[in-house]
Automatic annotation (TrEMBL):
Superkingdom, natural source: Bacteria
Gene3D superfamilies: 3.40.630.30
Keyword Ligase: no
Organism listed in the record: Aquirufa avitistagni
Acyltransferase recorded as keyword: yes
Domain N-acetyltransferase: 15-155
Keywords, sorted A to Z: Acyltransferase, Transferase
Protein name: GNAT family N-acetyltransferase
Phylogenetic classification of the source organism: Bacteria, Pseudomonadati, Bacteroidota, Cytophagia, Cytophagales
InterPro entries recorded: Acyl_CoA_acyltransferase, Bact_Acetyltransf, GNAT_dom
Length: 155
């Protein structure tokens, strides 16, 4: 898609990062303490701890976001988290493009493995994660009440 560009997060995208995530989480679940921690403090919680955030622009307008949160874990380097696409941009392959870009970003900083948590009722999201190469894993603790599936990807 020629009119989609994936860019690195900058402070101008702070509100869109928060708002896109609050929108989808609130539509299906309830906001939890871990959500507020990441979304209200993206700079200190994600970026200053070795993580990254990418933003998808459609015709120069931010419509998608995704984060890599650095994990202190022997099995996984980063958690793919806080992926959201504005409803008006859904169905335009924005999720796929930002997902591929976040995998490339992880590889570029030497990551070997990614981890994510989701909920199986989010059928399009789970389908996207599978298309991106994630497979289901089991037995990890989650801070989220809503999560009932855990997935991982070897890069």
């Amino acid at each position: 898609m020629d009119n989609v560009e994936i860019v690195n997060y900058e402070p101008a995208y702070k509100e869109v990062f928060r708002d896109l995530n609050v929108e989808w989480i609130s539509a299906y679940f309830k906001m939890e303490a871990s959500d507020y921690k990441a979304l209200d403090n993206a700079d200190s919680y994600i970026l200053q701890n070795g993580g990254y955030i990418l933003v998808a622009l459609l015709n120069k307008e931010p419509v998608g976001v995704c984060a890599l949160i650095k994990m202190d874990d022997p099995s996984y380097d980063f958690e793919l988290a806080k992926m959201a696409v504005a409803p008006k941009a859904q169905g335009k392959k924005i999720g796929w493009l930002i997902g591929e870009a976040i995998k490339d970003k992880a590889r570029s900083v030497g990551a070997k493995t990614l981890y994510l948590e989701s909920n199986t009722m989010l059928i399009p999201a789970i389908s996207l994660y599978r298309k991106l190469g994630f497979i289901e894993v089991f037995g990890r603790h989650t801070p989220y009440e809503r999560c009932n599936i855990q997935m991982a990807l070897d890069l």
